[in-house]
Design goal:
mainly beta, eight-stranded parallel sheet, 0% helix
Length: 111
């Protein structure tokens, strides 16, 4: 059985201003102007923009993130991802063709 796709919290063309809090797996396809603080995974779609701090268990970036990000388990930047900010996680994956303008810190698991 195939796992359910992430819930689309901010659809393409929509703008959300404020703090986004969630539990589970979510995907942003529009714009978030504020912090994203949650338990579970956050996906930033290829056309999405997040302007604020991100704290999640897992973070997958295809679009733009302007702000620092901390993940309890893993951060992945895919080809075409753009990040302006610092990344902190036990596991960080940087695909060829992504752009990171900031610092990268790997941490012990559970930190």
């Amino acid at each position: 059985m195939k796992p359910d796709p992430p819930l689309k919290i901010i659809p393409a063309g929509a703008v959300f201003e404020g703090t986004l809090c969630w539990s589970g797996e979510v995907r942003v396809e529009g714009q978030l102007r504020g912090d994203a603080l949650g338990r579970g995974g956050l996906e930033i779609g290829p056309e999405a923009e997040v302007h604020g701090e991100v704290r999640a268990d897992d973070l997958l970036v295809d679009g733009l993130l302007e702000g620092d990000a901390t993940a309890a388990r893993r951060i992945e930047l895919r080809e075409g991802a753009r990040v302006v900010g610092d990344l902190r996680a036990p596991t960080v994956v940087l695909a060829e063709g992504c752009n990171l303008d900031g610092r990268l810190e790997t941490t012990p698991k559970g930190d």
